[in-house]
Amino acid sequence: MTVCCPQCGSRFLQVSPCRTLLEALRDLMGISPLRCGDCGTRFVARTWSLSAFTHSRCPKCLRMDLSIWTEKMYSPGPLQQLMMTFGAHPWRCEYCRHNFVDFRPRLEKFSFNRWKQRGQAK
Question: Does residue 113 register a pLDDT over 90?
Answer without folding.
Answer: no
